[in-house]
């Protein structure tokens, strides 16, 4: 009895989801981790067929039934599982036939992959962004040095020219050099360290809304969906305003250039607990979603949209999103993007524990 109780206690304290099916593919047992994963109790799921929570694919159901009779185990990688609440999960699961008291049973072990895939995706995004920033810094250094020489030579040449008409050409050289220098400076971003002050995210959004409303003359609806429970956090208010404004302004311009009926931008804030950003886990994170109903970002640039000089607009500089990502990275956060026609979402995850 003690041994049986110990085995049950062990199963119920596992972080991996464990489910035991009978020969009719009905749930005989599931541990608390499985209940949390499937967002339903064992009592509720025991009344459901396996096709309602694991798979409705006839071929997969046939493999499950064949596993009971043949006794052959198998594994599925990155399978899609629909919870009872309708949420789609990416999971790995293993099926092992397990005869108990001469009764064929199936032991299913399920491991959620969504969080791991998210961590891998975020780490890859952060790594690519850091590599791009290092490349830009190196190129900027190599560009700015000769630009200084060209500008100085043009100024000296202007002093030597007696013909005033020729000064127009040296002015063009100096102006173009200054334009290139300003472009390089924008690529590099600010050299100053972020200020450490108390930031109210909703104060930031109200400032951005005022600026955008003035620019679009109220032609675009700005819908606010705020979570008032989000506390203030330590950061650089001006830089966060710049990051949010860059994204909202991009959305505004995309809506203005399209023929969308009832153009709208939604600003939504939520407090999220125990969130992993990159490889770091934070107790509390401010999640800011900026959503527009525009035409969406072209699929061929969606994966590189945060790189410098990448833009979906003919007259775009491609610096706004790169600068926004750098600012949020400085606050130990991350910006993610999902886009399809009619819905583009930029999600800013800002830890409320600024280190």
From TrEMBL:
Gene3D superfamilies this protein is in?
1.10.287.130, Histidine kinase-like ATPase, C-terminal domain, PAS domain
Q: Which InterPro entries match?
A: HATPase_C_sf (IPR036890), HATPase_dom (IPR003594), His_kinase_dom (IPR005467), HisK_dim/P_dom (IPR003661), HisK_dim/P_sf (IPR036097), PAS-like_dom_sf (IPR035965), Sig_transdc_His_kin-like_C (IPR004358)
Alphabetical keyword list = ATP-binding, Kinase, Nucleotide-binding, Phosphoprotein, Transferase, Two-component regulatory system
Q: Which reactions does this protein catalyse?
A: ATP + protein L-histidine = ADP + protein N-phospho-L-histidine
Enzyme kind, highest EC tier: transferase
- Residue ranges annotated for the Histidine kinase domain, each copy included: 138-354
State whether keyword ATP-binding applies: yes
Q: What one GO molecular function would you report for this record? A: phosphorelay sensor kinase activity
EC number from the UniProt entry: 2.7.13.3
Instruction: Say yes or no: keyword Metal-binding present.
Output: no
Q: What is this protein called?
A: histidine kinase
Which lineage do the record's taxonomy fields give for this organism?
Answer: Bacteria, Pseudomonadati, Pseudomonadota, Gammaproteobacteria, Oceanospirillales
